[in-house]
Amino acid sequence: MRDRFTAVLIENGTGGQSVRVTDVPTDQLPEGDVTVRVASSTLNYKDALAITRKSPVVRSFPMVPGIDLAGTVEESTNPDFTPGDRVVLNGWGVGERHWGGLAEYARVKGDWLIPLEPAFTFDQAMAIGTAGYTAMLCVMALERHGITPDSGEVLVTGAAGGVGSIATAVLARLGYQVAAVTGRIDESDYLVNLGAGRVLPRSDFSEPGRPLAKEQWAGAIDVAGGQVLANVCASMQYRGVVAACGLAGGMDLPATVAPFILRGVTLAGIDSVMCPRNERREAWQRLARDLDPTILGPVTQSVALDACIPVADELIAGAVRGRVIVPISND
Ligand code: NDP
Fold it and tell me: What's the half-sphere exposure (Cβ side, CA atoms, 13 Å) at 147?
């Protein structure tokens, strides 16, 4: 292993927080039983918040951001991993409380790692990233609650975003009829190509509605929260299931209990960060089986490690489309 490695580093000095791409001595890597040579990482919205310091994502300093990484085990004292193993990591507070993936090396707890499915390259794994793995957790939640392709149409909100795109593609490949909700109706062709049967404007869901509306959806995957989630719950079929994972439209939930107590609707909460390891592994295995990786190319753009800082600004400004991967090493 080299003496120094390149990383994005967020520091908190006397003049306030600062961020730069710099060389860091390898002996400053945090504690952990597995050292990974990072092959690829991503810029998620949360990473952009950390890099731009727009929100207190980072809990200790100095910090290497990056909530996702894929790479090869370089050193390990963990019996589950040996040098050369291909691994992936999503969440667990990495990039927030523990140095993350936007660096040539990461030292982490082996318990946080799962083997990378052979179906995926490192860059494909990062094109999926936390967004795609969360989408699969949502699909698994619908299945766990008994929703099948025969149950009826499944609604996906924020469908042109990261979670929504992968959810749409996976559901369609599994044989579900998907209704995709988007605020970008000009992305309709993109959504139909992913497998959506029909595309609905977000405005159909964004105004206050009745406690119970026409029963339409057997299942729903919601990234929006707020009024959109309230209206989705109100328009579920009897015993429908909503997997709620996001707050793109707001943290509040201006709903009534009517859908839950009169129609037996289930609201299933999805958290990817602390999700147990066996469920993560299952989600990645399912992604290898149920996601066509060729859909990833058109929605992915690559950014070099030393260009992450300006791109984080663009991401926060809403000027970036699709997923941003950060290829770091190929050897
Ligand atoms: P993206 O930014 O890629 O996509 C979010 C999408 O939400 C947008 O593309 C847009 O879709 C839609 N949207 C934006 N603003 C609004 C609004 N005001 N009302 C309704 N919809 C809106 O983010 P991700 O897909 O990566 O993440 C989606 C959400 O899920 C985020 O809130 C994120 O924090 C959360 N998340 C949660 C995780 C968990 O563990 N629970 C893990 C990963 C993400 P369109 O253009 O189609 O309208």
Answer: 34
